[in-house]
């Protein structure tokens, strides 16, 4: 009887300790803001990234939230509670937002214009490749295939290397459309941020900005360690597409000098 009583007490004590431990493990909540057209494919990528982050977050006591804002409403909104602002807006509104949020990462998911890279704003992070990157990729390819009418893209639904096939499958299953450059950009912005939260526990936007700009190493299912230039542009492999088929990757081997990601686009800010 004594042993039974002791066992009962021990079981109750263990159960109490487990409940207390569960209760004491605070859930870290992280908020993202998306600014732009709700029909833009960049938003589908953002949602894909959030879904995957929350699946992982169930085991790490992390929860990720997303708030959507029309551009006109965002220009006067207080974004101090957000880890990052993800944008698919025009160039003028992008610059206004970036200027007003100097200590928050502002991701560009849609604008390829080189001028906003050349501006070198401290808090702008350009996931979508620039026009110059695409031009350099095409120029390299045409030195090997002079008659090619290919175009350079950040992503393609038929890309299969480096676990890209799995990402394309997950995206198509969830959203019933193929992942494009913009949706890959949205997914990447969320993925690199949530992975950083999981790895470092950073939840402050200014600290997140500093980490992303100085310490990031991101695969993005492209097979290379991508990071940000001082222009805010993400270094990345580009795909050369002709007749909707992948014909090559840039930097083009044997052509690019140096044969690195920095052979594509503007590298430095003008001093």
Report on this model:
The radius of gyration is 22 Å and the shape is globular. α2 (41-60) runs parallel beside α8 (181-200). The strands form 2 sheets. A 5-stranded parallel β-sheet has the order 2-1-3-4-5, with helices on both faces. A 3-stranded antiparallel β-sheet has the order 6-7-8, with helices on one face. It has 271 residues and is an alpha/beta fold. It has a domain at 26-129 and 160-236: Rossmann fold (3-Layer(aba) Sandwich), CATH 3.40.50. α4 (91-100) links the parallel β3 (84-88) and β4. Helices cover 43% and strands 15% of the residues. Mean pLDDT is 91; it is low at 1-24. It contains 9 helices and 8 strands.
CATH architectural grouping of the domain at 26-129 and 160-236: 3-Layer(aba) Sandwich
Average pLDDT: 91
Q: Please give the largest β-sheet.
A: 5 strands, parallel
How many β-strand stretches? Answer: 8
The unreliable regions are 1-24
Distance from first to last alpha carbon: 83 Å
The number of helical runs is 9
CATH topology (level 3) name of the domain at 26-129 and 160-236: Rossmann fold
CATH superfamily of the domain at 26-129 and 160-236: Response regulator
The CATH class of the domain at 26-129 and 160-236, by name, is Alpha Beta
């Amino acid at each position: 009887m004594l042993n039974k009583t002791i066992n009962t007490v021990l079981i109750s004590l263990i159960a109490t300790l487990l409940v207390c431990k569960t209760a004491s493990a605070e859930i870290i909540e992280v908020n993202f803001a998306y600014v732009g057209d709700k029909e833009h494919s960049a938003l589908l990528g953002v949602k894909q990234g959030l879904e995957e982050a929350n699946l992982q977050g169930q085991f790490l006591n992390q929860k990720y939230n997303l708030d959507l804002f029309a551009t006109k409403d965002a220009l006067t909104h207080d974004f101090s509670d957000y880890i990052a602002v993800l944008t698919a807006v025009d160039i003028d509104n992008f610059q206004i937002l970036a200027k007003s949020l100097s200590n928050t990462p502002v991701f560009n998911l849609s604008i390829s214009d080189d001028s906003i890279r050349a501006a070198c704003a401290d808090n702008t992070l350009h996931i979508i490749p620039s026009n110059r990157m695409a031009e350099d990729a095409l120029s390299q390819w045409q030195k090997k295939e002079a008659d090619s009418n290919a175009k350079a893209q950040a992503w393609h639904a038929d890309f299969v290397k480096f676990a890209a096939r799995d990402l394309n499958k997950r995206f198509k299953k969830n959203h019933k459309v193929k992942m494009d450059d913009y949706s890959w950009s949205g997914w990447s912005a969320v993925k690199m941020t949530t992975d950083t939260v999981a790895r470092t526990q950073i939840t402050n936007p200014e600290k997140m900005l500093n980490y992303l700009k100085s310490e990031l190493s991101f695969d993005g299912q492209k097979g290379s360690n991508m990071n940000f230039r001082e222009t805010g542009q993400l270094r990345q492999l580009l795909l050369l597409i002709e007749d909707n088929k992948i014909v090559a990757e840039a930097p083009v081997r044997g052509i690019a000098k140096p044969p690195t990601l920095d052979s594509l686009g503007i590298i430095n800010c003008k001093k």
